[in-house]
Automatic annotation (TrEMBL):
<keyword id="KW-0100">Branched-chain amino acid biosynthesis</keyword>
<dbReference type="InterPro" id="IPR050067">
    <property type="entry name" value="IPM_dehydratase_rel_enz"/>
</dbReference>
<dbReference type="InterPro" id="IPR018136">
    <property type="entry name" value="Aconitase_4Fe-4S_BS"/>
</dbReference>
<dbReference type="InterPro" id="IPR001030">
    <property type="entry name" value="Acoase/IPM_deHydtase_lsu_aba"/>
</dbReference>
<keyword id="KW-0456">Lyase</keyword>
<feature type="domain" description="Aconitase/3-isopropylmalate dehydratase large subunit alpha/beta/alpha">
    <location>
        <begin position="9"/>
        <end position="445"/>
    </location>
</feature>
<dbReference type="GO" id="GO:0009098">
    <property type="term" value="P:L-leucine biosynthetic process"/>
</dbReference>
<keyword id="KW-0411">Iron-sulfur</keyword>
<feature type="region of interest" description="Disordered">
    <location>
        <begin position="56"/>
        <end position="77"/>
    </location>
</feature>
<keyword id="KW-0028">Amino-acid biosynthesis</keyword>
<dbReference type="Pfam" id="PF00330">
    <property type="entry name" value="Aconitase"/>
</dbReference>
<comment type="similarity">
    <text>Belongs to the aconitase/IPM isomerase family.</text>
</comment>
<dbReference type="GO" id="GO:0051539">
    <property type="term" value="F:4 iron, 4 sulfur cluster binding"/>
</dbReference>
<keyword id="KW-0004">4Fe-4S</keyword>
<comment type="function">
    <text>Catalyzes the isomerization between 2-isopropylmalate and 3-isopropylmalate, via the formation of 2-isopropylmaleate.</text>
</comment>
<dbReference type="InterPro" id="IPR004430">
    <property type="entry name" value="3-IsopropMal_deHydase_lsu"/>
</dbReference>
<dbReference type="GO" id="GO:0046872">
    <property type="term" value="F:metal ion binding"/>
</dbReference>
Length: 453
């Protein structure tokens, strides 16, 4: 038998039944839920008179709409989402990590913290950035509301098997260059549709050399290159991040790794040796340049991308030829499921230590646990002394503009994953950056890397 990929092995071990229409019925090991996109799924269950098949394999959190300032309670519209979520979880017996609890946070950040994620699992969630969890060698993907209902009712999901893509990154990341820069560069090179219909396995020395947190950042943005899921093969780095790993676990997880003779449907190669910090100039994550470059001229793009570039520059209020380093921002945001883990906050704090921010700087931890750890390490003081606003409560915050948001016309350097029009607030402009670039930008008031300070 020909060799198999990691994704294929995980898939095969979860097939309950091969369907007649080409879909497989997959067993789902874990379903995660948040307050957006789930009310309809529960309503559907209720209408059909069904219960949740495995409440013990289902976990909810509140993150998208939660306020980040203690005691604010949030506005009535977003409160309604959370009331509905709490009522639904109570009615169907699903554990819920609520605002104010020690375990609450962004769904993709708390799932590993709670020990819910192990290599080889199938994991779904009503959220496109579920790809994040593939960093552990799990097959994790976002699903829509009707699929959420299906999984709630049956703990299975009919799905067409995705194709396999390998993204092999050779070399090692230069100093000051992070997983975020790598993934922005990859998406810019390959395009936002490159991964469509595929599970992407990130491989190569530059990937295995990443910390767990770096791998989470990388897989988080697999969906921004159009992929169904992103994965990194489980190795010693992975095992160190898991509790209670036995020899048998390790042996099984190692056996899931892609076989030498496995063939991918699509392969991309990239060398990380000369990579520089990357910054987006446009309105999709594939519109980035190295920070040393200038805003590109749409005329330089092929027909397929020119109109989008022109439109993006209009929305972003940028002219071709302007040096990225000359772009002044109003706000810096460090947070989101892409970059709000402890390592991200440490990087930002290292840059801010002993310096002052020149613009409004908001730091929102990905989870209550991340915040506690940051306080233990004294990062809260570093942020305060730099004049940055380290929020009391975790959540998606300014990433999606449901709770906290930018004002119309404001420009932000943001460690998030989407720079779409209006994403961080109506009329707001987003430059996607790493935590290091975000912090340097906060100090300088214009896009900057730590080297510039
Ligand atoms: C609201 C939610 C469904 C959405 C997603 O699917 O990703 C959000 O998390 C996002 O990042 O755009
Ligand atoms: S932090 Fe942003 S990208 Fe992540 S789940 Fe929340 S809204 Fe989506």
């Amino acid at each position: 038998m020909a060799g198999e990929t990691l994704a294929r092995k995980v898939w095969r071990s979860h097939v309950v039944r091969h369907g007649s229409t080409g879909d497989d019925l997959l067993y789902i090991d874990l379903q995660l839920l948040h307050e957006v996109n789930t009310p309809e799924a529960f309503a559907g269950l209720r209408r059909a008179g069904r219960r949740v098949r495995r409440p013990d394999l289902t976990v909810g959190t509140e993150d998208h709409t939660t306020p980040t300032v203690a005691g604010s309670g949030g506005d009535p519209v977003t409160r309604r989402y959370r009331t509905l979520m709490a009522d639904n979880c109570a009615e169907f017996g699903i554990p819920l990590h609520r605002l104010g609890q020690r375990t609450q946070g962004i769904v993709h950040v708390i799932a590993p913290e709670l020990g819910l994620v192990r290599p080889g699992m199938t994991i779904v969630c009503c959220d496109s950035h579920t790809t994040t969890l593939g960093a552990y060698g799990a097959l994790a993907f976002g699903i829509g509301t009707s699929q959420v209902e299906h999984v709630l009712a049956t703990q299975t999901l009919p799905m067409a098997r995705p194709k396999d893509m390998a993204v092999t990154v050779t070399g090692s990341l230069p100093a000051g260059v992070t997983a975020k820069d790598l993934v922005l560069a990859l998406i810019t090179e390959a395009g936002t549709a490159a991964g469509q219909g595929h599970v992407v396995e990130f491989r190569g020395d530059a990937v295995t050399g990443l910390s767990m947190e770096g791998r989470l950042t990388l897989c988080n943005m697999a969906v921004e290159m159009g992929a169904r899921a992103g994965m990194v093969a489980p190795d010693d780095v992975t095992f160190r991040h898991l509790d209670g790993v036995t020899r048998d676990d390790e042996a099984y997880w190692r056996s899931l790794r892609t076989d030498e003779d496995a063939v991918f449907d699509t392969e991309l190669r990239y060398d990380a040796g000369d990579l520089r910090p990357h910054v987006s100039w446009g309105t999709n994550p594939g519109q980035c340049v190295p920070i040393d470059a200038s805003v590109p001229d749409p005329a330089a793009f092929g027909d397929d991308r020119r109109a989008a570039a022109e439109r993006a520059l209009r929305y972003m209020d940028l002219r071709p030829g302007v040096a990225m380093r000359d772009i002044a921002v109003d706000v810096v945001f460090v947070g989101s499921c892409t970059n709000s883990r402890i390592e991200d906050l440490r990087v930002a704090a290292d840059v801010l230590r002993g310096r002052r921010t020149a613009v409004e700087t908001v730091v929102v931890p990905g989870s209550a646990k991340v915040r506690r750890q940051a306080v233990e390490e004294g990062l809260d003081r570093v942020f305060a002394e730099a004049g940055a606003d380290f929020r009391a409560l975790p959540g998606c915050s300014m990433c999606i503009g449901l709770g906290d948001r930018l004002l119309p016309g404001q420009r932000a350097a943001s460690t998030t994953n989407r720079n779409f029009e209006g994403r961080q607030g109506s009329g707001a402009r987003t430059h996607l950056v790493s935590p290091a670039v975000a912090a340097a930008t906060a100090v300088r008031g214009r896009l900057a890397a730590p080297d510039d300070l």
